[in-house]
Write a structure and sequence with these properties.
two-stranded antiparallel sheet, 4% strand, membrane, 7TM_chemorcpt
Length: 104
């Protein structure tokens, strides 16, 4: 096996990881936020009738009203579906370019 081929594989793998890792990180943060919501609801059930219940309920409403979401340039959601959205976008514009080349 040629050494340049190995370098190409390593370079391609690192580029792929640099593209995917932010989406994985955003997805993990979103799942942690969902776990936090679940923990808040469990804590509310345990604190029934106490003075902290209203504060916990208010915090739960605050977290529910502002879901964890990351967006890139207000166009692409940074979550598990980002790769599919990018692929869809590339295919869409490839179809448009193909139609314009047949027109002229």
């Amino acid at each position: 096996m040629d050494l340049s081929f190995v370098f190409k594989i390593v370079n391609g793998t690192s580029n792929f990881l640099m593209l995917i890792l932010p989406t994985v990180s955003a997805g993990l943060l979103k799942s942690e936020a969902e776990k936090l919501q679940e923990n808040i609801q469990n804590r509310i059930l345990k604190e029934r009738g106490r003075e902290q219940e209203s504060e916990l309920q208010q915090f739960a409403e605050y977290v529910a009203a502002r879901p964890m979401r990351f967006r890139f340039l207000r166009f692409v959601d940074l979550d598990w579906t980002m790769a599919l959205q990018l692929l869809d976008l590339c295919i869409y514009y490839q179809i448009i370019i193909t139609q314009f080349t047949h027109l002229f």
